[in-house]
Fold:
Amino acid sequence: MSGTRWLDDEEQRAWRAFIRMHGQLTARLSRQLQADSGLSLADYEVLVQLTDAPDGRLRPFELQRGLQWEQSRLSHHLTRMQRRGLVAREECDEDGRGAVVALTDAGRRAIVAAAPGHVDTVRRLFFDGLTRDQVALLRQVSDHVLGRLDATAG
Structure:
């Protein structure tokens, strides 16, 4: 391990602060969604992907790619959401062997009801404490890191 480029003190503080922030935000957003709407953060993420898709329908591999989840996690989660009537699995019109995940009316109602409280919480916990310059910098840094991740995806 002699070739390891260890984080310097500033990098280590920044990384640990980011990890702490991510964990706390995720926990708070999860609690708010569950308390206000009965949805988990994972439910909400799936519903967002579907509401952003044409006709509220996506192939499972498209959902998996958008969410960056393992196939087994997605399959199990979709089964739970299907039992609750939030999504439906349908045959793919273009490929009789394939499936499509479709947003149901109940799923659409659930995200429409959950979104205002979720956005209020995101704004209160995150954006209200930042300046416009900080928001722009956050976007720039995020886009840069995402570009590096995309370039090294394998």
Observations:
- The chain has a mean pLDDT of 94.
